[in-house]
Structure formats: structure tokens, C-alpha cells
User: Fold this.
Amino acid sequence: MSSILTLANLLTILRLILTPVFVTALYYKNFGYALAIFFASALTDGLDGLAARTLNQKTQLGEILDPMADKLLLVTAFIVCSLPQFSHLPPIPFWLTTTVISRDIFIVLGALVINMVTGFSGFRPSMPGKVSTVVQLIAIILFLTANAIGCCADYLIWIYYLTFAITVFSGLHYIFHANQLMNEKTTTDSDQSPR
Assistant:
């Protein structure tokens, strides 16, 4: 039990717990609280990975929970921030929200199909994917900041365009990334096969 309840996993679980708290703060238009909660959640995203690496706390549970917590936080944030009743300012454009969600669905379904057809499951995060996640987090943080204190509102549209471009690029890059990983596995398997 102690090997499951590591610091890294507890941080990930905290992120899962904070997601509905974040939505509740937005529902009541407490944008300052919502910003603080979302920022704390985003911080745990970096800290749980750091704890897992530095404290040697990588677990199977963490490998499953961490990406789930990331996607739950971001998808929930984009959906809620796209609804007019949750914002003083114009909400996040729906075209951006659908792009973010569609990319995630595409990646999950792609990985599932590849796993079912080839048995390959060694997918690793790509650098464009990591950049895309960071940019999406920043977009939400700036949107909440604009609602909370009124600054940055004029620049939000450019943040939305940047987020859209990087999200699309990371989705396209995933195709080549997955193909490269599968080729590496095929090469490794063939090298290890008996001669």
C-alpha cells in the first residue's frame, strides 16, 4: 500500500480532487479562487513528475493516473471556460475547445487501435505534446487572470490562435512519433530474435 501512496501519486490525486473545486469556483464566478486553484493544479502536474523521477517513485498507478488527471483538468477547464455563464469576458472560442478535445480523442483512439492491431503500448510523450499541454495551461491561466483582474484581455485572441496552432501541430506530430516508436520496437524485436 505504501508503494502506491507515494508523494508523486498523492500530488496526482490532489489534481483530480481540485478539478471539481475549480469548476465550483467558476460556477460562482470567484475568478480569483478559480485562478489560484487552477494554478495549484497545474503546479502539481510538474511536481508529481519531478517527485517520481527524483525520489524514484514511478508506479503503474502513476503512469495511468497522471495523464488522466492532466486530461481531466484541461478538458474540463476548456469546456467550462467556453460557456458564457462562467465568464465576465467573451468565453474561450468553441473552435479552440473542440480542437483541444478532438486532439486528445484522436490520440487516445489512435493508441488504442495501434495497441489492438499490433500489441504495441510503449507510447511516450513527445516534446510537441508537452509544449502543447503547457501552452493550453497558460491559455486557461491568462483567461482566468483576465476575468479576475481585467488585464491581458486584448491579447487573449492571439493566445487562442497560438494554442490552436500548437495543438494541431502536436496532433499531427503524434502520427509520426507513434510510427517512429513502433519502428524502434520492430527493429529491437528483430535484433533480439534468434538467428
Summary: The chain has a mean pLDDT of 84. The CA atoms of residues 107 and 171 lie 7 Å apart. The chain has one domain: 7-190.
